[in-house]
Design brief:
15% strand, 7 helices, 188 residues, alpha/beta, 44% helix, single chain
């Protein structure tokens, strides 16, 4: 009787191990849902890059460079692309105070409507500077997750803020690498 039980146990263990080997690993948990509203915090050109990445990831998205709370309606995720450009601010006809106020109001509306925020910094080290760092420090804590080009986090600023607020941080080598990541963190 003991040999029979041993054989049955071995058969069950073998069957479970075989079945487990055939079940695909779970993909990362989806954190966000489309459709997306993509906007800039600082009027850098990286907001356009973010819109192109969303398109490649086949995510329905609308880019509004100077988005307000009205643009957030019917959107399930706010993508805030952080990077300051004095040229971009000038072209948009806003100064840093107006831009900061606009983003504060937009984030307040996102919080009020429980719209999660994905913060991005795609400009790398070149887009970092005093103004960008101020925007990062102020707006990053509102994010549910953060996606950065690794070169833009050399000093660990994103790591430090994300750790302090328990925000998942995703780093990619180059912006194009974000396409697969976006596919995995958005529900289809």
């Amino acid at each position: 009787m003991t040999d029979r039980r041993t054989s049955i146990v071995r058969l069950v263990v073998f069957s479970v191990a075989t079945l487990a080997a055939r079940v695909p690993a779970q993909s990362p948990q989806a954190l966000f849902e489309p459709p997306l509203l993509i906007t800039s915090a600082g009027q850098s050109a990286e907001a356009v890059i973010a819109a192109n990445l969303a398109k490649r990831a086949e995510l329905p998205a609308t880019l509004v460079k100077l988005a307000t709370d009205k643009d957030l309606r019917d959107r399930r995720t706010l993508v805030l692309v952080i990077g300051a450009s004095m040229k971009g601010l000038g072209a948009a006809g806003v100064d840093t105070a107006k831009e900061t106020g606009r983003v504060r109001d937009l984030l307040a509306e996102a919080k009020r409507t429980a719209t999660p925020v994905l913060a991005m910094h795609l400009g790398g080290a070149e887009r970092r500077g005093e103004l960008t760092d101020e925007l990062i420090s102020e707006f990053l804590p509102a994010a549910k997750a953060v996606l950065v080009v690794k070169a833009g986090n050399k000093d660990g600023l994103f790591t430090k803020i994300c750790a302090a607020h328990a925000i998942p941080l995703f780093e990619v080598e180059k912006s194009l690498d974000a396409v697969e990541l976006l596919k995995s963190i958005f529900k289809k």
